[in-house]
From TrEMBL:
This is Competence protein ComEA. Keywords: Signal. PANTHER family: ENDONUCLEASE/EXONUCLEASE/PHOSPHATASE FAMILY DOMAIN-CONTAINING PROTEIN 1 (PTHR21180), ENDONUCLEASE_EXONUCLEASE_PHOSPHATASE FAMILY DOMAIN-CONTAINING PROTEIN 1 (PTHR21180:SF32). SUPFAM superfamilies: RuvA domain 2-like. The keyword Signal applies. Residues 1-25 form the signal peptide. It comes from the Bacteria.
């Protein structure tokens, strides 16, 4: 007898779950839209200090020192070639939106 109310409660939960899903789906795209409108502050890797270079995501003291050692960078290809020796390509690509050469 006790299992009947439990089964009814579980059945009600299963039927109510899909009704909640559209509300969650509609609210989640708002985050990426807000993030895409944020302006990224770029760092000039040819003139930045070690501290300024470390504000780039994925750049710590060692990578910042390597960036300084290989200056000047005439183009992003040189940056990718030289710094790519020290970091994985995925990490390197995460840095690129935050750097400038001007």
């Amino acid at each position: 007898m006790k299992s009947v109310p439990v089964r009814l409660l579980l059945a009600a939960a299963l039927f109510a779950a899909p009704a909640l899903t559209p509300a969650l789906a509609q609210s989640s795209p708002a985050k990426p839209a807000a993030m895409s409108t944020m302006k990224v502050k770029k760092v000039n890797i040819n003139t930045a200090t070690l501290a300024q270079l470390q504000t780039i995501p994925g750049v710590g003291p060692k990578i910042a020192a390597e960036i300084v050692d290989y200056r000047p960078y005439n183009n992003l290809a040189k940056f990718r070639k030289e710094i790519g020796k020290y970091v994985k390509s995925a990490q390197l690509e995460k840095m690129v939106p935050y750097i400038t050469l001007k």
